[in-house]
Amino acid sequence: MDVTSTPDTPATPVFCTIVPPHLLDKLAQTDDPARNEPARRTLDHDTQLRTRRHENARATTARAAAEAPSGKPNRTIYDAGHAETLPGTKVHSEADSPSKDASVNRAHAGLGATFDLYLKVYGRHSIDGADLPLNATVHYGQKYDNAFWDGERMVFGDGDNDLFLDFTIPVDVIGHELTHGVTQYTANLDYTGQSGALNESISDVFGSLIKQYSLSHSADQADWLIGADLLGPNVTGKALRSMKAPGTAYDDDVLGKDPQPAKMKDYVETQEDNGGVHLNSGIPNHAFYIAATTIGGNAWERAGQVWYDVLTGGHLAKNAKFADFAALTIKAAQARYGAGAEHEAMVKAWSQVGVTPTE
Asked: Are 132 and 162 in contact (CB under 8 A)?
């Protein structure tokens, strides 16, 4: 399997928000205007932003090769002032002292945490491998219930302060969205079906690793939650997703029950959400959790290294299935570590989630 995106071929950007559309659809159908109106506005905005991200991502890809790596982050934060115009007003540069605005400081820190993991652990200079500047806009829109990477910058809503809090709070949300950029510049996975679910899962994996690395949490200490501390005080739940136990992140009267499957036998066949990319990502998410905890130690080291090797190795096809990805992780583990514990952990992980690797 060969990846079809090359340094000379612009990658195909995807549009993904951290809160999946199936969850916002659920909220938009509630009878309470205080809850359905923010959800409906967010869904409308996200539809419009798909085109904007497509244009920005192509421009960013074209610029990347011209910049030489420096090994240091270059972060700039903007404030949208609750409007919907990007980037907004520049309020913080790399060398500035901390802001009085907590959202600005959290965005700055989250961009830095993402940069640090990729550089210090995997030797990657920013998301494009060439020190792409990391820009972010905070306070986007009115009660905007989402965060996204548009191909040029991170954008954070403040949430509605009821079901969702400020989207700069969870560092793994920032890492998740920026990793969509890493995937765009490397394997360039199609955002549909199983390849789209892999695209989502890879972002969850590295988003979780960024949080674990920043907290110095081992695989056993980690909570394996995506978006912990994001759900508001009126939600019965702990996060948007759980890698340890997909399908258990929330069970709420308004949001419904977390619909993610953990095993291939429960794979969701649907036309919604590009073939259920935010649902079925629970399967490879769970495989990574099993592999990382079986190996033990710090998940960003051996298990994370295997996932990174596959993502950047040039053999992951744009339309890869779970079975293809599984086979590549098993081969990558053996190539880097030999036929030992790491290789055995990969075999075990995919077997336990019911994915049979391709031959």
From this structure: no
Sheet (strand 147-149) strand order = 89-92, 75-79, 134-140, 154-157, 147-149
Region of 140 (left: φ > 0; alpha: ψ -120 to 50; beta: rest) is beta
Q: Lowest mean pLDDT of 1-10, 99-108, 120-129, 144-153, name the range.
A: 1-10
C-beta of residue 57 within 8 angstroms of C-beta of residue 15: no
Element at 241 (helix H, strand E): strand 241-242
Of the candidates 271, 346, 358, the one whose C-alpha atom is nearest the C-alpha of residue 321 is: 358
CB neighbourhood size of 300 (10 A): 25
> How far apart (Å, rounded) are the C-alpha atoms in residues 73 and 337?
31
Residue 335: how many other CB atoms lie within 10 Å: 12
Rounded CA gap, 27 and 163, in Å? Answer: 10
The contacts of residue 63 (CB under 8 Å, 6+ apart) are: none
- Which candidate, 186, 199, 209, places its Cα nearest to that of 313? 186
Share of the chain above pLDDT 70, in %: 89
Distance CA 292, CA 298 (A): 8
In this structure, of 55-59, 189-193, 267-271, 273-277, the range with the lowest mean pLDDT score is 55-59
Active-site residues, by number, are: 177, 278
- What is the dihedral angle through the alpha carbons of 52, 53, 55, 60, rounded to the nearest 10 degrees? 140
Question: Whole-structure pTM over 0.85, yes or no?
Answer: yes
CA distance 304 to 121: 9
- Does the structure show a pLDDT above 90 at 31? no
Q: How many other CB atoms are there within 10 angstroms of residue 232's CB atom?
A: 13
Going by C-alpha positions, the residue among 248, 21, 229 that lies closest to residue 145 is: 21
Q: What is the pLDDT of residues 315-344, one digit of tens each?
A: 999 999 999 999 999 999 999 999 999 999
Contacts of 263 (CB under 8 A, 6+ apart): 283, 286, 352, 353, 354
- 148-197 per-position pLDDT tens digit: 988 788 999 999 999 999 999 999 999 999 999 999 899 999 999 999 99
Alpha-carbon gap, residue 198 to 177, rounded angstroms: 14
The amino acid at residue 61 is T
